[in-house]
Amino acid sequence: MAKAKKRKVAPGDVASNRYASYRFELLERLECGIALQGTEVKALREGGAQLKDGYALIRDGELFLHNVHIPPYAPAAQANHEPERDRRLLARRNQIDKFAAEIKQKGLTLVPTRIYFKDGRAKVEIALAKGKDRFDKRESIKERETKRDMDRALRDVNR
């Protein structure tokens, strides 16, 4: 039997961080471009990027993406990129300033939720996030299970 592919949130996504909505309460989202090297773009098109432990920081008025793993591009051999280097995100100054103010004031963090291509350019969706407690996580599990049970009951009724 063939090995099943990893499930993605939306068609066209290169990588998605489904675990982020479990660990954090996602408040506001922002689409950013990424400053990439040539081999990184090719590796992204092949897939295999990992966002699970990634986060974004605002440093010197610029937005940077940390701990995101983009695997090396095999055919590049010596001219390859470093898989976990910090990558600059491209966003408007007013958006960066707005997020910086909210992070300082409320103690929030920036979490990458997905990487995708839009009109041939790599984009990252980052979300302003607030950490969840253990109780909140149990609550989200309970909601997910009740939704699954309701969907299952509706499906059985419609048969």
SSE blueprint and pairings:
Elements: E1 13-16, H1 20-23, E2 24-34, H2 38-46, E3 55-59, E4 62-66, E5 87-90, H3 93-106, E6 109-118, E7 121-131, H4 134-157
Antiparallel strand pairs: 1-6, 2-5, 2-7, 3-4, 4-5, 6-7
Question: What features would you describe in this structure?
Answer:
- This protein is 32% helix and 31% strand.
- The protein is of the alpha+beta class.
- The protein has one domain (13-132): Small protein B (Small Protein B, Chain: A), CATH 2.40.280.10.
- Strands 1-6-7-2-5-4-3 form a 7-stranded antiparallel sheet.
- A hairpin with a 2-residue loop joins strand 6 (109-118) and strand 7.
- The longest helix has 24 residues, at 134-157.
- It is globular and about 55 Å long.
Biggest pleated-sheet summary: 7 strands, antiparallel
| Shape, principal axes of CA atoms | globular
CATH superfamily: Small protein B
- Average per-residue pLDDT, rounded, comes to 85
Distance between the termini: 29 Å
Give me the count of strands.
7
How many domains make up the 3D coordinates?
1
CATH class: Mainly Beta
Radius of gyration from the alpha-carbon trace, in angstroms: 18 Å
Please trace the helix and strand order, writing H or E for each element.
EHEHEEEHEEH
Strand order of the largest sheet: 1-6-7-2-5-4-3
Second rung of CATH, namely the architecture: Beta Barrel
Approximately what portion of the residues adopt beta-strand conformation?
25-35%
Determine the structural class based on helices, strands and strand pairing: alpha+beta
Q: CATH topology, what is it called?
A: Small Protein B, Chain: A
Roughly what percent helix? 25-40%
Low-confidence stretches: none
- Total number of helices: 4
